[in-house]
Amino acid sequence: MSVTGRQLCAEAEERLRAAGIDAPAGDAQVLFLHALSQSLDRPVPRHALREHLAAAVPTGLEAIYEPMIAARAARQPVSQITGRRAFWKHDFRVTPDTLDPRPETELLVELALTEHFDSVLDLGLGTGAILISLLAERPQARGMGVDLSAAALDVARGNAQIIGVKAEFAVSDWFSSVSRKFDLIVSNPPYIALNEMPKLAPEVRDWEPRMALTDDGDGLTAYRALCAGAPAHLTPSGRLMVEIGPSQGEAVAELMRAAGLVEVTVRQDLDGRDRVVWGRKPASRSA
Asked: Residue ranges of the Release factor glutamine methyltransferase N-terminal domain (predicted)?
């Protein structure tokens, strides 16, 4: 007797629920569509899900779907299994070498686009989601993205090529390989303190690159480097904008003020948590 897509997803949902997955039905269906696309060798849109759930599954689909469900039951993130994550207006390739772009980070993009800039630097760019999203909106701007991970840079280069954005990429320990000045510097650095790591969901703690998550210290190491180096790499009136953890707003704001930045502002995300801090280099400062 043929197995329908609904039966296959129901069995997968039970496995994922037993593994402690919060939204087992949704994950089972997302992975079903991904497996179906591979089986049929063509993209299957979300709106076609109902039709395919009612139909018998194609030959070979179960063999494709099974390892995906096994990986998700092992708490591998869906984005790593499918290899993609939607962010801002584009889909980005995601691998275990990169941080999974979060919806919260879109606030950083949104706020950056309220500013005028002809040049932008992304420090610790990962998938390139922030930099590429900004350059796609401002095609006249030049951009540079740096990361300590060469593997992450390869992912970002690929995403830029697919989306049609041109940028410069370099391996760099924050500003170490950066010699120019920029109108805008953005970063979503590792901000999770070492004592917070055990509390993270397994999808984050066990599957995403550790150096993109934590400084193995108080969570502020990256901000100290970013704030100290930003004035020398910003044009007059240029801005530094960073994503932060929800308890770090005042500490990061004080680091910016100590570095000589002015108009320092903390903005909250949709859940009311501190999420982005930015400051401006004074127009009269020549550093």
From this structure: 7-83
Q: Are residues 118 and 194 in the same domain?
A: yes
Query: Mean pLDDT, to the nearest integer, of 163-177?
Result: 96
Residue 80 tokens read as 């790593």
Q: Which among 286, 222, 214 is positioned nearest to 255, based on CA atoms?
A: 222
Q: For the whole model, what pTM was predicted? A: 0.92
Picking from 211, 208, 257, 252, the residue whose alpha carbon sits closest to that of residue 231 is 257
Q: Please enumerate, by residue number, every residue annotated as part of a binding site for S-adenosyl-L-methionine.
A: 124-128, 147, 174, 188
Range of the domain at 170: 85-280
- Residue-wise pLDDT for 233-281, tens only, equals 999 999 999 999 999 999 999 999 999 999 999 999 999 999 999 999 9
204 Cβ contact list (under 8 Å, min separation 6): 77, 213
Residues 70 and 100 in one domain: no
Q: Domain boundary residue among 49, 74, 99?
A: 74
Q: What is the CATH number of the domain that holds 136?
A: 3.40.50.150
Strands (E), 30-167: 84-87, 90-93, 119-123, 142-147
Q: Give the H or E element holding residue 57.
A: none
As annotated, the binding site for substrate includes 188-191
Annotation: binding site: 124-128, 147, 174, 188-191
